[in-house]
Amino acid sequence: MTIGIGLLGLGTVGAGVAEILQTPDGRHPLVADLELKRVAVRDLNRPRPIELPSEILCTDPQAVVQDPAVDIVVEVMGGLEPARSLILAAIAAGKPVVTANKAVIARHGEEIAAAAADKGVYVLIEAAVGGGIPIIEPLKQSLGGNRIQRVSGIINGTTNYILSRMADEGAAYAEVLADAQRLGYAEADPAADVGGGDAADKIAILSGLAYGGPIERAAIPTEGIDRLDGCDVNYADQLGYVVKLVAQAKNLGTASDGTVQLDVRVSPTLLPKDHPLAGVHGVNNAILVEGDPVGRVMFYGPGAGSGPTASAVVADILNIAGIRAATGNNGGLDPLLAASRWRNCALVDAGETLQRHYVRLQTGDEAGVIGRIGSCFGDQGVSIRSIVQFETSGEATDAEIVVITHEVKQQHFANALAAIKALPEVKAVAACLPTL
Amino acid sequence: MTIGIGLLGLGTVGAGVAEILQTPDGRHPLVADLELKRVAVRDLNRPRPIELPSEILCTDPQAVVQDPAVDIVVEVMGGLEPARSLILAAIAAGKPVVTANKAVIARHGEEIAAAAADKGVYVLIEAAVGGGIPIIEPLKQSLGGNRIQRVSGIINGTTNYILSRMADEGAAYAEVLADAQRLGYAEADPAADVGGGDAADKIAILSGLAYGGPIERAAIPTEGIDRLDGCDVNYADQLGYVVKLVAQAKNLGTASDGTVQLDVRVSPTLLPKDHPLAGVHGVNNAILVEGDPVGRVMFYGPGAGSGPTASAVVADILNIAGIRAATGNNGGLDPLLAASRWRNCALVDAGETLQRHYVRLQTGDEAGVIGRIGSCFGDQGVSIRSIVQFETSGEATDAEIVVITHEVKQQHFANALAAIKALPEVKAVAACLPTL
Fold first, then answer.
1. Is the pLDDT reported for residue A398 higher than 90?
2. Is A349 inside a domain boundary?
3. pTM attached to this predicted model
4. What angle do CA A325, A331, A333 make, to 5 degrees?
5. Would A151 be classed as within a structural domain?
6. Do A28 and B144 touch (CB under 8 A)?
7. Which of A195, A248, A265 is nearest to A225 (CA)?
8. Cβ neighbours for A188, distance < 8 A, ≥ 6 positions apart
9. Which end of chain A is more exposed for a tag (fewer CB within 10 A), N or C?
10. B1 touches A: beta carbon within 8 Å
C-alpha cells in the first residue's frame, strides 16, 4: 500500500527527509511504502543537495496540500506564516500533518490541535524538539503511567556549543559566537538561539505534553546567554559546576480546581558536574524527565542537523503509516499519539518554591567583608553551601566574592540580596544565576 | 470505557503496577480506565506491600488468563515456565499480553510473536529491557527511518553497580559482590547477572527489534565480570578508560540473500572516559543507538526496581488501551508497535571486523621487554595506541605491561599475541578485554 507524501520545503530538513524516502533499503520496510508525490520549493532553479524528478517540484504549497495523491503533509519550511495556514489547510482537507516547526507549535499549537481533533487527524511533532532524539513520542507513549515532577533539558544546540567552548577554552561569549557563526553552528541573526526564545518554544511544547495541558508560551520567563560573563563560567568550573542554558518545567502541585501549577523557565543555570545534563557537550541536546514512579530518565543525542531531524520527521510519518496499515482510514484517534489535552496548566510565580543560587559580588578587598555578606544571608535564614573570594585580574584592591546557596525561598534570598547591596563594601551584584 | 487488567504475579514489579493502577490521579487519564480485575499470586497469605481486595486474588494463573473480565494479561511472575505457557494461553484466548520477562522473550520470542501475529494481538515488552527507560517503544516507533549500525548498552544494573564500586573504591570483585548481595543489589544466586546471561537476554531482544529479525540467543558470545581482576579496572582508569559490562550488536552488512550479518556479544569492555556510556554509574542503565542518519542517540535511566519497571509495564498497557480507544477490538495490528519481523539476521564470526584491545601481560622486569612486545605487534601490522609498564606490588622483579591497540583485525591481533606468548620474558597474558 503506497502512502503519498507531500513535502512543504526542501531545505536542510526537507532534503534529509527526501533522502530517506528515496533510499528505503535497510530501513523499516514501511519506508518503502512511502512515496514522495509533490514538493513545494521557493525557487525551482536553485541547486539542491538531492535530485528529484522535476515534475514533482512546484512553487505552490497549497497545491501540495490539496493534491489528491498526497496522504500526509510534511511541513518543514519553518517560520510562522504561511506554515500555520498550510498546516490548518491540510487538517481541513482531512490530511495528517508532520511538522518540525517548533515556533508554530509553541504559539499556535492549541488552535492546530483543536482543528486536528475536530477532523480526527494526527499532527505529529517529534522533530520540533531535540532534533533526532526520540522525546516527543516517549513522553506521549511511554511515560503516561507517571506523575511528572520535572522536565528539564539542554534543548538548544547553538547555545550549548557556545557554552561548551567558553568552558573548555576560557573564551569570551562574543568571540565564540562569531566563530560559531563562521562555522554554521549559529545563524547570522542568532537572537532566537542566544536569547533563549528557541529553548522557550521547545519547553512550552515538552511541558504541554508532559503535563497534559496548554502552556502559555508568552508567559515563560526567558533569559538567554547573551549577557553571560565568561568569568562566571570559569568560577562555576572551579567550584565544581558547569553553566548550561537549561529549560525546565517543574510541577509545583495541583490547585483545588485541578489546574497544574508549573514553574516553567529558561535561563543559564549552574549544574553540579555529576548531574546527568552536565556531560552534554557541543551541539548535543538532552532531556531529563523526572516522574513518579519512574525516577529520572534521560534522552540524549544530536539536537539539530539534516539527518537527525529528518529521522524524527520520518518516525512521525511511519507512526501514521503504521496506524493506517492497521485500521485503514476509518479508525478514531489514539489519545496517546494524538496527545489530547486532559487538564489545565498555569504558569505560576515561583516565589514560594525552593531554589539554589549562584551570586557573584564585586567588593572592595577588605577584611571582614565575607563575614558581613555571610551575616546578611544568615539573618534571612539563607543557608550557604560555599562562599569563595576570587582575586580579579583588574585593580588590586577589588575582589569578587562568589556565593552558592542551598535551597532557599525566593523572598528570603531577595531580602538577603537587598541587605548585601546596602553594604558599603559591596560595589555590585555582578551576576545571579539559578543552580540545580 | 473500562479495560480489565489481569496480573500474573504480585512481586516487586506486580505490586508496582497495582500501585499505579490504584492511584490514577495525576497520571494520564487513560490510567483511570484500567481496572485490576484479577491477580494470581503463589500464596494468598503472604504479607504484601500493597492492599488489594481479597476477592480479586487467586492462586490459579490460568483462571486469570481465562477470566472474561480480563482484557489484557500482564505477566510479571518471571521464570520460563509457566510464564511461557501462560503467555501463549492468553494469546490463544485473543488477549494482548504485556510482559517484563526478558528470559522468556529472549528464548521463546519467535514462538510467542508468531502466535500473537496469528491471533492479531499485541505482546508488548517495554519492561523487559532497561527497567523504566523507554527503549523498546522508541526502537520500534521512533527510529524506523534509520539504518541501524550499532546498538550498545549497559543493561545490567547489578554488574554496573559492582563495577562502579570497584572503580571508585579500588575494591575487589568478590568483596563488592558480597556487599551488593547484602544490600539487595545482587541476588543470592548472582550467576545470571555477573555471568552476563541477563545482559545477553536483553541484547538479543534489542537487536531483534533494531535489525528486524530473530536473534539466536544461545549463539551470543557472553563473558561476565566474574573473572574480572580489579587491577584491570585500576589500570584502565589510569589510562583514561572505565570498564563496563557492555552488550552490543553491530551491523556488519547485508549478505547477498538479504540476511543482516551481526556481531552480537556481551563482555567487560573498556570505554574511553568521554564515551556517552562511560558516565553511567551504579544501578543505572543506558542504551546507545547509532544509525544513519540519526547519528548517536542515548537512553538513560534506572535499569531495575519496582517503580521504574512498573512504569514501563503501564506504558505498554496504555499503548494497547490507546489503540483500543481508537479502533475498538476490530483493527489489525500496527506493524510498528507489533514489531513484525521483516528480514533474517545471522550472528557471524567477527574475525574480519576491526576491534581495539586492552592486553595485560605479566613479564619479567627486564630492559627491552617493551620493545620486543612492541615488535611482535608491529610485525603483524597491529598499531598500538599506548604501551605502559606498571610496577606490581608483588615480587620486585616482576612487571605488568598493558597494551592498548588501535582498531585491528582479529587475526592479526591473535597472531601478535601468539608471538608475544612465545617470548621468554612473557610469563602470562593475564587479561585481554575489548575496547571501544
1. no
2. no
3. 0.96
4. 105
5. yes
6. yes
7. A195
8. A181
9. N
10. no
